[in-house]
Each structure stands twice: as C-alpha cells, then as structure tokens.
Write a structure and sequence with these properties.
Strand content of chain B: 15-25%
Helix content of chain B: 25-40%
Helix content of chain A: 40-55%
CATH architecture of the largest domain in chain A: Alpha-Beta Barrel
Number of helices of chain A: 13
Order of helices and strands of chain B: EHEHEHEHEEHEHHEEHEEEH
CATH topology of the largest domain in chain B: Rossmann fold
Structural class of chain A: alpha/beta
Strand content of chain A: 5-15%
Distance between the termini of chain A: 72 Å
Number of domains of chain B: 2
Number of strands of chain A: 8
CATH class of the largest domain in chain B: Alpha Beta
Radius of gyration of chain A: 19 Å
Radius of gyration of chain B: 19 Å
Strand order of the largest sheet of chain A: 1-2-3-4-5-6-7-8
Oligomer: heterodimer
Number of strands of chain B: 12
CATH class of the largest domain in chain A: Alpha Beta
Largest sheet of chain B: 6 strands, parallel
Number of domains of chain A: 2
C-alpha cells in the first residue's frame, strides 16, 4: 500500500478570519475556537489582528483585544497544535515578534507584497534567531509574473524561511495562475511551498487543490470560510475534500465540522458569501481586506463600492494601503459633484 | 560672499541629490569634498564633472580638510556610528541623514531656526518623519493630540537597499519622532512600499486623535500654515484633500512631488530628506557666519 501524501493545514480563522468580525473577537471566542481546532488536531493555528501583529490601528481598525491578550487566550488551550502569528514589516516591528514569542508563538509568518521580499530579512533573521519556524508570505502574488514570484521566494529562502507561500490575497487567480506559480516554486526551492486562497471568484477549494497537485505541502483555511473579502478556503470542506482525494491531513473530520458549525457560525456577523463587492475584489485584483473598509466609505460618500474597488485596482494599490480607499472615495465624490 | 565649506559623505542617490541641491540652491554653503567608498560610483564621476573635489577614501578625505565645518552623512546607520566620534573630534558639525539617530531629531519646519539645537550632531529622522511630523505638530500646537498615526507610502523604486534593510528602524523612528517632535502623546507609524509602474507619488496619511472636541477652524488654519512653511524648502509638498474630521479625529492626506534635481519627481520621499537636510545646513551656516561677524 502506498503512503498517503501528507498535507499540513494552517488554520487562520483567528487571523484572516478576524477581518470578518472587524477584529472584535473576545477572549472567550479566541479560546473556544482554538480549543475546537486543537480538538480536531489542526497542525498550526494562526492568531492575531487580521493585518498581523501591530495591526490594531485607525488604518486597519482597532481590535478588541491586544495581540498579547489574543495570543494568551489561544495559547492556554492550544494543546499539541502550534501557535502562529503574522507580521507585515512596516506595520509590525521586531519588538512585536519578541512579545509574540514570549506568548508561545513558535511559527512566524512574515508577509510582504510579492515584489518586496527584501523588507522581510530583518524579521526573518530575528525569528530564526529566537528559535521560531519561519513562513514567508508573498502577498498579492497574482500581480507578479511567475518568474518574479520565484525570484522573491528565493530571497525569503536565503533569509532563512522554512516555507514560502504563494498568497492570492485578492482571490484573483484562476487555477492556471496558481499552477504556474506554485509549480515553479516547488521545482526551484529547497524549502516547502505553501498556498493561501481567497474565495472572491469562488475558487478557493479548487485553487488550493491545484496548488497541492503542483506540489504545495502547506495550505491555509478558515473555519466556515471566514476571512477577508469573500473569505478563505473553508477548513472543514478542505479536510473532507483532501480525505476523499487520498491525502493525509491528520485532522479529525467530524471535529473540524463541529468547530465550524457549532463554534464559528454562531458568532459570524454577516454571511460569508461572494457578494458583488467581494466579486469585484477578485475581478479587479484588489486586497481582500479592503472589503469592509470600502463598504463604509461607499456608504459615507454615497458611492457604489464597485467603483471604488475598480479604481483601486487601476491604481495598483497594494496591501495595507487602506487610506487610499478614502482617497479614491473623496475623488470620486468630488467628480460626482462637478 | 563668504560661504561655509561642507563635506558630503556617501555618493549614492541621496548624496548626489544633496550635492546638486547645494550647488544649485544654497545661499551659505559650498562643497569642499564629496566622498564615498566606491571609486566606480556614478556620483563621484558626476561631482568631478561639476568641478567638485571627490574621493573614494570615505571619511578620511573629509577629515583631511580642516576648513570643512559641516558634514552631511548620507551613508548608513552603521557607518554613521563610526563617523560620528571622528567628526566630533575634528570639530565638524554632523547632519545625519541615516537612521543612526545619535543626535537629536530635527525637523526644520517645526523649528525653522534650530533654536533647540544644542549638539554638534543632528539627525534628520526619516523621510516619512520629515513629511508627517510637521502635520502632527501643526495639530498639537493648537490642540492636545492623544494619539497620532501616520501612513507613509513610498514608490518601491525610490526605496534603496538602506531603507529596505532598516525597515524596522524606519517604522519605529518615525513613530518616535511624532511623539518627541510632533507632540503626540502616543504614536504609531506604518510604512508601505508600492511597486506600481509608472511609480506613484510619495504620499502620506496622518491621523490625529484629539483629547477634546476639536476647534476645526484653528486646526485647519494651523495645518495650512505648516504646509506653506514646508513648501518654503519642499515646493512639491501639498495637501491631497482638505483635512477632514470624524468626531475627535482629523485626517490629513499629503503628497510630495520631488524637485527632480537628480532623483526622479516621484521620489518625493528622498527629496524631502535632502531638502530638509539642506535647510538645516543653511541655518547652521548662517549661525556660524553671524557668530563669526560678532567675534
């Protein structure tokens, strides 16, 4: 009998999923979700503000809990699963990473825009030095050619990354886009390749499978498909699909279904669907986190959110530039008045 | 007219832009030496073509010329830490454009006469700081600012290896400057690199949270006056939209178009740095000249 290929799932309900609840998870909710994920034997659990350590701000929205409080709530019930935290250089600083380590984080996910990997050297260096596993995150990977993605992934590899992810932050890739990028990384890196999907075009599961078929060993999901934009790959669905396809995830299927249904669904503030704004994000190739910020600006300035999102796409705005949503809204509103 | 001789350390983009600014625009300065460590540097060739003494022997060429009074250091934080004691010993005033921050932060728009300058080594904070701290200060001089948050977006092409390798210091130093010079009680700073082609202009968003209900008119007048002050040495600095209020929060959006002296116009972030350093150098030179007359 052949050995089943092992796929590592990192659940990010408590990080990317934070966007869906506007970063308002309570300590009880963090603990309940973590415990449910740990019961289902999820390998790694990512916990922070949606924009990573230090993300709580006017720009990205304040979180109810501090980074430390979130991590503490998770760490005390995490069992055998590993605790991960995201950091975007330029938003979080090295001190945040040290605090995270102190709170039990052993997997540092360091994210940059797909063409700017060299700003991750400092943080990857520190994470390695203090004994963390390092995962590189190349965001908005649809905006760069596969060869550029590889060049940047190699930089992260040289800084000590153990895994480098192709991150479809805009949920803008079709399966062929995923295959080209992931296969190039898999055949040219000495380290593992990961993939993170958003469901704005309804392709989160399909793209994740495409990535795995091309050799990705690590993939992300969120319970009940929480996450920025139309959400991430639903972890419980992914576990079921991978099991059917003959991959080994080590996750208990019933327990992960229970976690999604009984723990996460009751706290969801809005249905996680592909509404027209989320679809526009995938179509225009814009950072998924812009969804709720754009909805607010559209409301305030009486604009169609799609107009704002399409203009942001034209301007090639990158992750973290939430202030440009208001900038564009002000411009569109003044054009409307003329 | 008598001019104060200056030395420039670092012959990269920043050093070369500063060189051209001094030669073209300065009232009180003349360049005695332009020195780096890369003999093949384009900046050195260019300086020589302009008839400026240039060297690839680094700080030695500067220390060898005792008539130099002020030294602009556009190398790296690490190099400046080595340069600082040598310059001090030689009696030369250092204007530090690196994140080393050995001396106090200086933002010319906030203190045009450098009246707070007590030390022979001053630090120009960061490019994000030069653009955002004056706005925080403009608000805090008329209303108590309990928190400031600044978002600096830099076109990727204008972020050199120094900025990239020191992104953490850049983030942290900009935030500290908003407290120390800007007058905010607490502060946060965010830096984003945007690789769009053609490059976007350097832009900044400044949020200030006020302790009390704001006097909107007074705050807007203070911001507008500060924009004019900055435009005195960075003509391409401008408000993108009129400042606006949400309760106790004011949002200010600015963009900085570079002068295009050596660096391209989109690199307003570098232009504001070299312009601020030049403005500081001019004030120091004027002080030296006035003192000289008095003696």
């Amino acid at each position: 009998m052949t050995q089943k290929r092992k796929i590592r799932i990192i659940d990010t309900t408590l990080r990317d999923g934070s966007h869906s609840v506007r970063h308002q998870y309570s300590a009880d909710q963090v603990a309940n979700i973590t415990a449910a994920l740990a019961r289902a034997r999820i390998d790694t659990i990512e916990v922070t503000h949606g924009d990573g350590l230090g993300g709580s701000s006017i720009q990205y929205g304040y979180s109810k809990l501090s980074d430390q409080e979130m991590l503490q709530a998770a760490n005390q019930v995490i069992g055998k699963s590993k605790l991960a935290a995201l950091l975007l250089p330029g938003i979080g600083i090295k001190e945040d990473l040290e605090i995270a380590y102190h709170e039990g984080v052993r997997v540092a996910r360091i994210a940059t825009h797909v063409t700017e990997a060299d700003i991750s050297a400092q943080h990857m260096g520190l994470a390695k030095k203090i004994g963390m596993e390092v995962v590189g995150f190349l965001m908005l990977a649809h905006m760069a050619e596969p060869s550029k993605v590889l060049e940047q992934a190699k930089l992260m590899e040289s800084y000590g990354a153990d895994v480098v992810y192709v991150v479809d932050s805009a949920g803008a890739m079709v399966p062929d886009d995923v295959r080209k990028r992931v296969s190039l990384l898999v055949s040219n890196l000495k380290i593992q390749t990961g993939y993170h999907a958003h469901n704005n075009l309804g392709l989160a599961i399909g793209n994740t499978i495409a990535a795995i078929e091309e050799g990705a060993d690590v993939v992300d999901g969120c319970l009940a498909g929480m996450g920025a934009g139309a959400g991430n790959t639903p972890t419980e669905v992914l576990v079921a699909v991978l099991d059917k396809m003959g991959y080994e995830t080590g996750v208990d299927l019933y327990a992960i279904m229970d976690a999604a249904e009984d723990v996460v669904r009751p706290l969801m503030q809005r249905p996680q669907v592909i509404d027209k704004a989320a679809l526009s994000i995938g179509y225009a190739g814009v950072y998924s986190s812009f969804l709720l910020h754009t909805a607010r600006a559209a409301d305030k300035y009486r604009l169609d959110p799609r107009d704002i999102l399409i203009e942001l796409g034209k301007r090639k705005v990158v992750g973290g530039q939430e202030d440009m949503i208001v900038d564009v809204a002000l411009e569109l509103a003044s054009v409307g008045k003329r | 007219m008598v001019r104060i001789r200056v030395g420039l350390l670092g012959t990269g983009n920043i050093g070369t832009d500063l060189l051209i600014k001094i030669v073209d625009k300065s009232k009180y300065l003349e360049v005695g030496m332009f020195s780096g460590i890369d003999p093949a540097s384009e900046g050195i060739q260019r300086a020589r073509q302009m008839g400026i003494a240039a060297s690839a022997t680094g700080i030695n060429a500067i220390l060898a010329d005792s008539s130099i009074r002020i030294v602009f250091d556009a190398t790296s934080a690490k190099s400046h830490c080595a340069h600082a004691p040598l310059l001090k010993e030689a009696g030369m005033i250092a204007i530090d454009l690196t994140p080393a921050a050995i001396g106090p932060y200086v933002v010319p728009a906030v203190d045009m006469n450098l009246s707070a300058m007590a030390e022979a080594n001053i630090n120009m904070v960061t490019c994000g700081g030069q653009a955002t701290i004056p706005m925080v200060y403009a608000v805090s001089r008329v209303a108590e600012v309990s928190y400031s948050e600044t978002i600096t977006t830099i076109p990727s092409k204008s972020a050199g290896p120094g900025t990239r390798a020191n992104i953490d210091e850049f983030t942290d130093t900009t935030a500290k400057g908003a407290k120390v010079i800007g007058g905010a009680k607490r502060s946060k700073s965010i830096i984003i690199l945007n690789p769009a082609e053609p490059p976007i202009l350097n832009q900044h968003t400044i949020y200030a949270v006020l302790a009390q209900e704001p006097d909107q008119k007074a705050i807007i007048a203070s911001i507008e006056a500060m924009v004019e002050t900055i435009r005195g040495y960075v003509p391409g600095y401008r408000l993108k939209h009129p400042p606006f209020f949400d309760g106790k929060r004011v949002t200010i959006m600015v963009e900085v178009e570079g002068a295009g002296d050596f660096l391209p116009k989109y690199a307003g972030n570098l232009d504001i740095m070299t312009s601020a350093a030049l403005a500081a150098g001019e004030v120091i030179a004027r002080k030296i000249l006035v003192k000289g007359v008095a003696q």
